[in-house]
Amino acid sequence: MILLISSLAKAHDCARALQEAINEPVKVCASPPEAVANLQAQEFSAVIFDQLLLDSDPDEGRAVLKHLGTAAPVYVNFAISAMGRVVRELRSALQRRKRELAAAKKEAEQTLRNELNNTVTALLLSCEMALQVPDLPAQAETKIQDVEALAREMSARLGSMA
């Protein structure tokens, strides 16, 4: 969903045109406080700011920016921008957001994989050291070997995901 922040009378017409162009719902807010309330209530893929509204009260604009979350900000001067330009700016912002989210997801997965690999390596080393303890009871040795086998399986799975 897209959030459009504008107090202009033609904001609803713009929202309909954007909705048709990008096939995504567009919600209109007439003020920054209303926008903040909406941003706190649900997630948006993009927030379109009317620059005239932002220029009239920059502090309220900063308040909205604090609540964006993962939404891509798009700044438009509706007084001089044609609808085609607004659509292009929005599409560009949505594509940028999609790339950024994919990169962040990939980085998080890699970080988790590295952390798990480190833990599995430590577990395998501990198993090897435990199996070298003299006079280890047979039952304990079997359990440690089972843990080692599971750790090797996990290591193989983590390696195949890379």
Describe this structure in a few short sentences.
By secondary structure, the protein is of the alpha/beta class. The protein has six helices and four strands; from the N terminus they run E-H-E-H-E-H-H-E-H-H. The chain has two domains: 2-103, Response regulator (Rossmann fold), CATH 3.40.50.2300; 106-161.
Description:
The chain has six helices and four strands; from the N terminus they run βαβαβααβαα. The chain has 162 residues and is α/β, with parallel strands linked by helices. It has a four-stranded parallel β-sheet, with helices on both faces. Strand 1 (2-5), helix 1 and strand 2 form a beta-alpha-beta unit. Helix 1 (11-22) packs across helix 5 (83-131), helix 2 (32-41) packs parallel to helix 4 (58-66) and helix 5 packs antiparallel against helix 6 (138-161). The mean pLDDT is 91.
Number of strands: 4
* Principal-axes shape call: rod-shaped
The biggest beta sheet reads: 4 strands, parallel
CA-atom Rg in angstroms: 27 Å
Briefly, what CATH class of the largest domain?
A: Alpha Beta
Q: Tell me the CATH architecture of the largest domain.
A: 3-Layer(aba) Sandwich
CATH topology label of the largest domain: Rossmann fold
Counting helices, strands and paired strands, the structural category is: alpha/beta
Q: Please, what is the CATH homologous superfamily of the largest domain?
A: Response regulator
Number of helices: 6
Strand order of the largest sheet: 2-1-3-4
Helix and strand sequence: EHEHEHHEHH
Our estimate of the beta-strand percent is: 5-15%
